Amino acid sequence: MFSFCTDPQSLEGTQWLACYLTTGKHLAFYRSFGTVLLLLAVTAPVALLFGFLAAMAARARLAPLRWLGKGYMAVVRGVPDIAFFLFFVIALDQAIEWIRHKILCPDWQGPVYQGNDFVVCPAAKMPLSSAPQWVHDAYSFSLAVFTFAIVFGAFAGNVLFGAMRAVPRAQMETAEAYGMSRRQAFWRILVPQMWVYALPGLGNLWMILIKATPLLFLLGIRDIVYYAKELGGMKTQAFAYPHPDWRLWYFLALLVFYLAFTKVSQIALDRLMKRLTRGQATLGGQSGGAMS
Amino acid sequence: MKKILLATAALAFSASFAIGGETIRMGTEGAYPPYNFINDAGEVDGFERELGDELCKRANLTCTWVTNDWDSIIPNLVSGNYDTIIAGMSITPERDEVIDFTQPYLPPDPSAYMALSKDVDVKNGVIAAQTGTIQANYVAQSGATVVEFATADETVAAVKNGEADAVLADKSYLAPIVAESNGEFVFVGDDVAIGGGVGMGLRESDTELKEKFNAAISSMKEDGSLRKLTKKWFGEDANSF
Fold first, then answer.
1. Which residue in A183, B78, B135, B178 has a CA-CA distance of 20 to 30 Å to B33?
2. Nearest by Cα to B204 from A121, A118, A125, A126
3. Which chain B residue is nearest to residue A127, measuring alpha carbons?
């Protein structure tokens, strides 16, 4: 990075530190904060969408649809996140490759499962073995986003389902009295009003989602926890910048990052709550303050 | 049963490389210097990086490097996330049941106990070892209490923190740590001879790839380049082919 970094052995003090903190690996560490933020930025809306669909399904008049919505929420909420992550990502990955295998290689003779091995034809690999590393990274990242969205969608669905039921019955009756159809009443009366009831629960979920991002590490994605562990570990002379075990400091940095991030989120959520409840007949709206 | 195995092997043999110019993904741990580690530029480095690149060159393969946790390095090989394991993995009968190995590229390397003082009782004490290694197995059978960690680095940290009395690991991994600790760490007790040499792991169905790497390893053994590479990374006294 800096011109004086060519010979790390001869450096001392702040120069050493400046060079050390700007190695390729450290730059990758800083970039991985972006990975975490990107995950949150993509996962949160997708999970909310899943949750909304689940809540709608759970309220449907058609029984199978209702079972689907309620079943999804019950199953995913009941399985530990880590177990779900480990199972679902492998299963999803193999399912995708298996389907591609069936479509792309109809003439393939060998079985897909050979003893312990899961073997699909090279053209069915997802992504292809010859694809550059960033494609592999993007693929596993998408799998992670999808899995996060399914898990958090189930929780969001439950929150939204409760929030929809919390909208006063009189509001819906009035809508019907005005001649609105069920669909109109849902979109024009229920949905705009339910957010205020959903927000505390969704805010909670957002906090939990932030804290759950280290699960990325579990899926083999190089997130901030991976780099903190990797950079903090003791380094022998085989490395350009040998140092003792510094994991404590790296994890402290992560702690500060997460605390700051959740604090900022809390402030934003409080403001949003204030806005949503303005003039409404809720505790927050009446007192003019945020619901705590 | 044998016939079926032979038939599937023949099938895999004829079909798996029908598409030419395939890229081989080399799976390694990236946390076991000097065997393999992530260097300061963020790339896989170490003895096995140089060895793997040379083997690929000799076998005319295009190779890319992938890192994976030690814990799940075998499951992710058999499920096809990468095509080889080249991660200082000792050839053992238990592993051989699940995956296949090439011929060894490193002879059996003794394991050693490392502790903070000479008078630690390695037979009855608390010994740290990395999960799923031959050392963890050995400690469990030796009568000592084994505490397992996901990475080798954490086993050393455990000894430093006093969480464990000693750590059992490949001597070639511990040697630089002892040498650079200014006397803080010492080797304790006798070396332990476990493991049957280090080889590359492959899926059992990948017989053709295995033969290619076997041939490349043989050629490196014959022209002495493997010995040179071993000495470069493990020192002049290291056992080598």
1. B78
2. A118
3. B81
